[in-house]
């Protein structure tokens, strides 16, 4: 009965993962079976129906600003369902303000940093950042650069070491290896210092799940869900984890 309740969304399939160092390192893009599994992504939204009671029971928000950052080639509208849910809980949830994420993280870290500082100055308190896939990469780097302006970061389906272990790596060419080297250097020299939650799924057919694991950031929390990559944005377990972490006390 319990697996059925999880399948329908009535119960959560999310679980904390503590010893990530014991898990395998990424060795390339996701397997073909996982990539083909992305075709089932629309089914994730079905679980939202069964999850309505538990999503409604999540802790109420304190009104602080939450900025949602879309994944690669995803329009800002892709995060609208999650933002609507967070606003119902009482958060000031907003899109990142730049439309579709066209895949220029260096530029986007610069411009989101500037926008975030303006928003934090306007609201008077640090913001939380929620990033999907490449959006999580941007959220991490903004938090690394401006920890005083960031309350916490939650990422899901995010390749923390660059795009080399994704099914779309070919679109990034030789730069994917450079991104991985830069990330390793930054993690060593300037680790992320704000509370960080990493959500990953072994069913991810776009980003190898092993590449989502953060083995460098002190105190990072990992949560495993069971969703395709595209389905993460409407997976009720992802929404519940985001809601629970946003409700945690500020540092």
TrEMBL record:
Q: Which organism is it from?
A: Nocardioides baculatus
Asked whether the keyword Hydrolase is assigned, the reply is: yes
**Protein name stated in the entry:** Alpha/beta fold hydrolase
Gene Ontology MF: a single term: hydrolase activity
- Occurrences of domain AB hydrolase-1 (ranges): 89-165
Q: Does the keyword Hydrolase apply?
A: yes
Superkingdom assignment = Bacteria
Q: Name the Pfam families on file.
A: Abhydrolase_1
